[in-house]
Amino acid sequence: MLSRKLIMAAVGFSGAALLMVPGTIMAENAKPKVLKPCMQCHADTPDNGIRGKLGSVSMKAETIKVDTGGASWLVNFDEDTDLSGAEALNKIPAGKEVLITFYEEDGALYAESVDVKQPAKLDPAILIKIDELAPLIEQGPEKGNFAIVDARPGKLFLEGHIPGAISIYDAQFDKNLDKLPKNKDNLLIFYCGGPT
Amino acid sequence: MPAWKKAKKPLYSSSKSLKKMMETETPVVLIDVRDAESAKAAHIEGAVSIPAAQLAEAKERFPSIKKAPIVLYGADTKAGLESFQQVRDWGYMNTTVLIGGFEGWQKGELPVATGATATEIVYVPKPRAGSVDIASFAKAIDSKTTDVVILDVRTDDETEAGKIAGAIAIPAEEVVERLDEIPKDKQVYIHCSTGIRAEMAYVALKEKGYKASFLDANIEVSDSGSYEITEKE
Q1: What is the distance between the alpha carbons of residues B196 and A113, in angstroms, rounded to a whole number?
Q2: Whole-number Å distance between alpha carbons of A101 and A75
Q3: Closest CA to A53 of A40, A34, A39
Q4: pTM flag (> 0.90)
Q5: Is the confidence at residue A1, as pLDDT, over 70?
Q6: Which of A39, A68, A150, B233 could be cross-linked to A52 through a Cys-Cys bond (beta carbons 3.0 to 4.6 Å apart)?
Q7: A153 contact residues in B (CB cutoff 8 A)
C-alpha cells in the first residue's frame, strides 16, 4: 500500500497537482533511486538512473514500474527507449533487477534506456569442485595447507559441518576476521548452505 | 554444503549440539559403534550400541524416515568415520559423526550412562520446541489483532527487498541488543526465510521472558509484502 501511495504522489503528476500538494517534491527527493542491496556493487549509479526490481510493465500505458525498496518509480517509455538484456519489455520477469536511465519532462519521467541484469557469472577459477575438495578434506587443513570456512549460522555448524571447517557466520564475518588463518598464501575455501 | 552432502561426503557434528538436542528433547538417533563391551562400561545417554562390524546386519533396525538425524560415535572421531559411509549410503542424509567420539564427550564432562544400552532404535519426529505450524502463522499475520506482532529476523538487505506489512525487522544477530524495539506484552511470531535464524531469535527472546514462537518453514516475501510459505523438505 505504501509504495502505491508513493507512486501516486511522486510520479506523473502535472504542475497543478504539485502545487496542490506541496509536500510531494520533498517526498520525491527522499525516495531512494537505488535499491539498497544493489548498492553493494553499484554505488556509482548516475543521477539519472533508477536501479531496482521490476514491478510491472504496462504495454498499453507504456509505463514501467520499478521498486527501489519501500518506494516505486513509474517511468514512461516509447519505441526510442533502448532495451538491453531482454527481448522485449513485457518479457522481463517481475522482480528482476533493472537499471533505467531517464530524463524528466513536465514532472514525468521518460526512460532513455532499460538495462536488465544478467545472471552473475562466477569466475570458474575461484570455484572448487567436490572432487577437488574431498582429497583436501581428507588430508586436513594443516597438511593440505588450506582453511575452510562454514559461513552458515553457528548453530548449523554445530549440527553438522564439513570436517576441518571453522565457523564464521556470514552476517558477522567482518567482526571475525581474526578467525581467518594468518597465512594469506594458503588456499581459503568458503561454503554455505544455499538459503538459510 | 548441499553439494557436499549430496556427494555423501562425511559431516561432523559437535558435542555441544548433541547436548543441546538432549536438553531440548529433540529426537535424534545416537549410535555407539564401539565394541559392545566398551559401550556397556560407559556410553552416551540415549545411545544404542551397534558395533561397527555388525552395522550391516542392523540396517533394518534403522528408522524408515531417511531425514532422521543420526549421530554416530566411535572411540574418537576417526573411529566413527567408517560407519558414517555405510549409514549415509543407506540414504540417511542427516547422518553425522560426533567430533571427538566418546573420548571427546568424556573430556567435556558430559553425562554418560553405564550398563546395557537400549537395543531398539526409536525415532519419532516432533516439531521443534517453540515452532508454530504454517496455518497458525498465517493466521497470526492475517488476524491483525493488537496483541500479535511479527518479527522478521532476516538481514537488512533481505527485508529491504520486501517484508510483511507491520512486521518489525531486526536481523537475528542483533535481536539481543535491540530488545527495547520488541513489545514484551505481545505474542511475537518470528520468521526468517527457512526457520533457522528465526529459531535462534526465538531462543534468545524466550530466555528474556518474551512470549514468542517461530515459523519452522520456508517463507518468501515479495516486495509488495505478500508472502508464500512452504513446508521444509
Answers
A1: 41
A2: 10
A3: A34
A4: no
A5: no
A6: A68
A7: 172, 196-197, 200
Task: List phi, psi (to 5°) of A74.
Answer: -110, 120
Q: Which domains does chain A have, with CATH numbers?
A: 2-116 (2.40.50.320), 124-191 (3.40.250)
Is B11 in the A-facing interface, judged by CB distances under 8 Å? yes
- Work out the burial of residue A68: count CB atoms within 10 Å of its CB; fewer than 13 is exposed, 13-18 middle, 19 or more buried: buried
Is there a shared CATH topology between the B2-113 domain and the B131-230 domain? yes
Q: Please write the tens of the pLDDT for every residue from A58-74.
A: 999 999 999 887 788 99
The CATH class for the domain spanning B2-113 reads alpha beta
Q: Work out the percent of chain B whose per-residue pLDDT is above 70.
A: 100
Closest CA to A159 of B129, B65, B12: B12
Residue ranges covered by each domain of chain B: 2-113, 131-230
**A195 contacts B194? CB cut-off 8 A:** yes
CATH superfamily of B131-230: Rhodanese-like domain (3.40.250.10)
Reading across the β-sheet that carries B148-152, which strands appear in turn?
A: B131-132, B211-215, B187-191, B148-152, B168-169
Tell me, what's the pLDDT at A182? 86
Round to the nearest angstrom and report the end-to-end CA distance of chain B. 16
For B32, phi then psi, to 5°, come to -95, 110
B172 and A171 in contact by Cβ < 8 A? yes
Q: Are A191 and A167 in contact (CB under 8 A)?
A: no
The answer to whether the beta carbons of residues B38 and B75 sit under 8 Å apart is: yes
Q: Is B73 helix (H, G, I), strand (E, B) or coil?
A: strand
**Confidence at residue A195, expressed as pLDDT on a 0 to 100 scale:** 65
Measured in angstroms, the CA of A189 and the nearest CA of chain B are apart by 12
Q: Which residue is associated with the grid cell 507512486?
A: A7
Size of interface A-B (CB pairs under 8 A): 92
DSSP secondary structure string for all residues of A97-143? EEEEEEEEETTEEEEEEEEEPPPP---GGG---HHHHHHHHHH-HHH
Cβ-Cβ contacts under 8 Å, A36 against chain B: 156-157, 160
The ipTM, to two decimals, is 0.79
Could you give the CA distance from residue A158 to residue A152 in angstroms, rounded to a whole number? 10
Backbone angles phi, psi at A144, to 5 degrees: -85, 0
For residue A151, the one-letter residue type is: A
Q: Which residues make beta-bridge pairs with B98?
A: B13
The grid cell for A185 is 598464501
